[in-house]
Amino acid sequence: MVPQPGVAWGICLAFRETCCIDDADRVQRSNREHLPSMTAVLLSLATFGSTLCGGLFALKYRDRLHYLLSFTAGVLLGVVSFEVLPEIFELARAHSLDATKAMVALVVGFLFFHSLEKFVLIHHAHEADYAEHRHPQVGVVSALALVGHSLLDGVAIGLAFQASQAVGISVAIAVIAHDFCDGLNTVGLMLTHRNTTRHAMAMLVLDAAAPVLGAASTLLFQMPVSGLILYLGFFAGFLLYIGVSDILPEAHSGARPNTAIRLIGLTALGAAFIFVVARFA
After folding, report:
1. What CA–CA distance (Å, rounded) separates 146 from 173?
2. How many CB atoms lie within 10 A of CB 8?
3. What is the Cα–Cα distance from 92 to 87, expressed in whole angstroms?
4. Alpha-carbon dihedral of residues 110, 113, 117, 119, nearest 10 degrees?
């Protein structure tokens, strides 16, 4: 039997509506998948302003860099201790993974930057004959490491949003809070090693843009938890190196003995600041 026109028309309408519903569902699912990543990119724009503010602060108060560097060394120590390492252990516990590999990645990150700095900084035989010297290339390499750190900050925001919106917002707040110190560190390291103000500003803009680029990159990929743990470990390693082997010694070099307690207190304050951010962000 040939279907009646009315029945055939009804079948066609039903088929078309089903297709439209499927297409609408696909669009809605796509929107839901991309919304968190786009939110991550928008929030990362706040890190641009935060980093610039930190760098401009360092330029204005360059004669007090000892105090600023002491505080930010504590900030980096706090980021590793109160944000990165707890996140590694929590992810490892939740997914039944071995956190030892992340600790190996931490050591690799520390030694990688140590080796990179020593490779770039070539000491000459009679260099000790000079009372005081600085190496502009060390400031550039150190600042580039902070740019890399800021890029990974942006990636961290994007990856956190891949986990959940609540986690993403918390990580974004923490990153925005300590990116002020990233800008300060970038300018501080450049000026400490006798780079020009113009070069310091150029590196500051690069550092400020890096988190936005990092967050945007997560629109293109999804990282498995096992890879995320290794990334966080490596990230913690070079943060530790920058804070402990570069910034903190520089903060105390040339400082008067009566300021030592203040500098140590500022380092403790920087770590305490991140502790509060990590607990209440």
Report:
1. 19
2. 11
3. 8
4. 110
Tokens standing for residue 209: 């843009």
Q: Which residues contact 140 (CB under 8 A, 6 or more apart)?
A: 190, 193, 195, 199, 203
- Judge if pTM exceeds 0.70: no
Scanning 193-253, the segments in alpha helix (DSSP H) are 197-217, 225-241, 248-252
- Cα of 258 vs its chain's centroid, Å: 34
The stretches of the chain forming alpha helices (DSSP H) are 5-60, 65-79, 85-94, 100-120, 136-163, 165-192, 197-217, 225-241, 248-252, 260-280
CA–CA dist 161, 39 (Å, integer): 8
Q: In this predicted model, what pLDDT tens digit does every residue of 53-108 receive, in sequence order?
A: 888 887 787 677 788 778 878 888 888 888 788 888 988 998 999 999 999 999 99
